[in-house]
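Table 4 source record.
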Amino acid sequence: MTQMQSEIDQPTFLVTGATGSTGRRGTQLLLDRGHAVRALVRVDDDRAQALADAGAEVVVGDMFRLDDLSRALQGVHSAYFVYPITPGLLEATAVFAQAATDTGVRAVVNMSQISARREATSNAAQQHWIGERLLDRAPFDVTHLHPTFFADNFLFSDRPIAHEDTFRYPFGAGRHAPIAAEDQAHVIAAIMADPAPHAGKTYTLHGPVEMNHHEIAESFSKVLGRTITYEPIDIDRFAQFLTGAGYSEHLIQHLTSVAIDYQNGIFSGTNDVVTSVGKTTPTTIEDFIATHRTVFMP
């Protein structure tokens, strides 16, 4: 049997960032649907072992090493590329694109962000836009994903919500429709399994209901059974908080820049991509809070 015939009969899918929020869930969805999944991880730890136990072929590799990525992508039909908000995105994208080209990958799903654009003031957001253009020039099909802020981001505010009944962001009266990582994983898995209809497309990803943070606080209050409030803060105070929490300069520059984007409406909107492409009912913020209720309890 030729490699091409083997890929048609039982295609292999590569998931990078397989221990992350979207990668882990996407891997599990593909496995649940009977697909062969190769999971690329940075370290062989308990999270990697959990993927192996679930049925994934786990490969330990460095996103900056061409040989590692070429080995991981060998025989792969389609791949999911995701990179954290840390320095090195463009180098990792270039190495990934070369390895995918060398190994004959047919399609790539690229996790970008809704703030990715040429004029972005966030260094990371602008780098995502440039990375998209690099992938567009490659010989494989590409689908870019532009998610708004994750519902999962509220898990980083678990302590102030649990102990102070409040959360603080510099988002003013801006609005967005929080989207769960689980729902994004459904979109990722669906495109990877059948990439042709989505080739060359960019999908913005939103949750089902657009809200401001005061309305989100009302949802927290309703689900948790106590009054939770949203306290708007200015950018400088937000930056001071992030610095005190040990965030990197790269991440702080990104988060403070996209906070302004958020106020200017860049993260707003909603659509039916989770339903129409991911074939799942999108998670409401109330359902997300209820699922993680214990995290927000004092």
